[in-house]
Amino acid sequence: MAEEHGTAPEANGAPTEPPVSEADDTAALRAEVADLKDRLTRSLAEMENLRKRTSREIADSRQYAVTSFARDMLTVADNLTRALAAVPAELRSSDNKAATAFIEGVEVTERGLEQTLAKFGVKPLDPAGEKFDPDFHQAVFEVETGDVPPGAVAQVMQRGYVIGDRVLRPAMVGVAKAPAGASPPAGEAN
User: Fold this and answer.
1) What percent of the chain has pLDDT over 70?
2) E strands, 19-170, where?
């Protein structure tokens, strides 16, 4: 029966493997080595990609970890700005030392807060005069003006902020439009 399957019985009755030539054995080993080299190269490349991705994720985590806190601190910055804007000019120029010291204290606090935010990558947007960009600006109203070109930011109602390359809060702006009755610039049609 063993002869039907192409193996001859050994003296003890166990089947034997057909003889393998040395060339076949070498070719099989070379193929196995090439396969193992390919798998090793792919594993090393995968590990390098994983290292780079992890490094990028760690850097992003460090940069954007303060996002929620920074967004909450913007309310404080806005309130300090509003407080300073509400001070009448005559109080600023008066000889009242207590009022002057108080105003200077609020200004120092506002600058300190801005410096701390900047230390963590939070930067203000100053879009006045720039072309309106919905990624960085929130249009609140349109204003007829000839001071800036139509479609540009004419007024900034509330400063916007970015952290890294992400918008933390868009700037609330008024967008310029051409005054009524003004002719459109050359090249534009109604």
Assistant:
1) 84
2) 122-125, 137-144, 153-158, 160-163, 166-169
Write the CA distances from 91 to 27, 88, 107, 110, integer angstroms: 95, 5, 15, 19
* Tally of residues, the chain: 190
**Which domains does the chain possess?**
121-181 (2.30.22.10)
Q: Quick check: 74 and 169 in contact, CB under 8 A?
A: yes
- Residue type, position 4, single letter: E
10 Å CB burial of residue 176 (0-12, 13-18, 19+) is buried
Q: What are the C-alpha distances in Å from 51 to residues 40, 45, 56? A: 16, 10, 9
**5-23 as b/e: b if 16+ CB within 10 A:** eeeeeeeeeeeeeeeeeee
Report the distance separating Cα 57 and Cα 96, nearest Å.
54
Sole residue written with tokens 């996002």: 67
Q: Which two tokens stand for residue 19?
A: 């003889």
Residue type, 27: A
* CA neighbours closer than 13 Å in the CB half-sphere of residue 158: 17
Whether 145 and 102 have beta carbons less than 8 Å apart is answered as: no
pTM, full prediction: 0.63
16-70 pLDDT per residue, tens: 665 657 778 888 999 999 999 999 999 999 999 999 999 988 888 877 888 889 9
